[in-house]
Design a protein that fits this description.
Elements lengths: L14 E2 L7 E2 L2 H6 L1 H25 L6 H27 L6 H25 L20 H14 L3 H21 L3 H28 L7 H19 L3 H18 L2 H11 L13 H39 L11 E4 L12 E7 L4 E5 L6 E5 L4 E2 L8 H30 L4 H15 L4 H20 L5 H21 L17 H19 L4 E2 H10 L12 E2 L1 H21 L5
Antiparallel strand pairs: 1-2, 3-4, 3-7, 4-5, 5-6, 8-9
Length: 584
Amino acid sequence: MYHVCSECGALDALLKCDCIFITYYCNEVCQKAHASQHHASCSQRLLASIGYQQAELDDIPTADNNSTNTLRVELEQKLALLHCTMGRIMSVSQVPAIYAQAAKHCNMALVLHRKVRTFQTTATGLMRIFADEVVVDKISTNGLYDTLHNIGDICCLDQNYPGAIEAFSTLVDGLRHDVSVHNTKKQQTMLAVILGSLANVHVNQHHQESDHDNLNHNYTHCYIAIDFLQEAICLWDKLSREDLRKTALLQIATVYNDLGKFEKAQTMLHDAMAPSTMTPNKYTNAFQSTMHMASCHQQLGFNCLGQAMLLRKQLYAHQMFLISNSMEYYHSRLNMIRVEGLVNAPQYNGLEAVVLRVGAERIEVFLLEGYTDKVIKIKPANALPLIRDASELLPKFQKIQELTAKQIESSIISYELQLQKSGDRHINTAVTCYTLGTAYMKTLRKEDTEKALQLLIKADKIRMRIGDNHVERAIYFPQLITEAREALHEFETDGVLSPVTCCWAPSSRNQDAETLGELFDSLQQRIGSSTVSSDAMLDCLRLYGIFNVTAPAADSVDKAHFIAIACDELHRMKLASAMTQVIP
């Protein structure tokens, strides 16, 4: 039998659409070109069928007998399938205005499916029936799975994450029961897939809550997501699906990065990137493996970026503490402190913690130890600076440089893998290109900034060439290009270089003198004297990455002497940095 392509009219079209009205195409190109017309015609035919089936259902007598009930159940099943299909087609159109209508059709399908299941289980004498909206007894063998899955997907598209959590959680409850009773591979696979989807929804809900209420959000959704993903990993192990197990590991690493647990994230990433110990099968192919490795390297780059940002934040907090002699900045939300001096709970002394809330008499912090963060309340006097003394500063500056180098290395690998498999006409290539450009920008070196500008321009060209309409990319891509050009323009001024790669922005001697003058004024105000001690000067300069200053012979230093000593050392550091390629 010949099938005609609905787009070009060619015979022997073998590719079928996945909606209820079968349409054929030559290939995916024809299917994509015909998509808008196909969705419109399918929607019209589905609506007409829904109306026809509903009219038939309304005409059935209300008499309670086997023939009438059987007919009613058959029509309700058909009507549920039509509503479910209509909801799916409306959702894939990617028009936010009709998501509510899509959800309405899927919810109607859910009501019909539950009516059918209630009748079937009661009529056959089964003990398990629907109770309080909980789906039980082989959910995987009927239309409820597709309907609930569609509802969850539509809620995600509409950013209604509580609704998606409700739909996917109902699915998980039913599938867990199915697995416990029947334990087929199909049910295990369906449960693992839904657990991954439910984990993603919880992460999105966390991001949504943190965006709306950054002062009071917590990380409960992230830890719930990790639990679901670990359950999914156990299922993929049983099914010998190492490819999907590694995908779940990558998802967990992403969540740990969000939580700031970078060491755990790295452990998961290295496991996800480990060479396969299983024999290749029909589920694995070179393309998927390459894309997985690209995603892992990209996430490893984000991991390094997150660690470097955290270290910069710690240095800045200590700068504010040293200048003002006040813990006010340390005692602000999401800054890190060191717990000391607890009498009733000495086991917590010496641990690092993050400030959650600051009250008049107590500070609420969560400890960065163990799998689940423990929240405690302590007195302000027990929340001390994270950095104990100047000896801890140099390793932090060196660590930032090391992390920046690793970020660039991982971003290069991710970009090359993405370019190799997807070419330069794919949005993922544009994103990895942009990510590599931002990594080069972090070094604060002229040659790296030039590389960054080339990459950022290329990323924006790919974005525009493929017609990407993502709002944030349309804003951030051109914005960073402007920043890179401005940074290169700064380098054109004689003497403008970075004295501390990755940490100190490029500056001229005049700018250095102005910054150091403001620093001296802050120290002077803190001390209450026209001069500062040699030790105070050395400690302050070390905090800004200036470590090799020779202590002056005099016990005290005035402003002019302070600026001259620091600027001379900065000039020497700039020349050394320009001659040494710190970042590969």
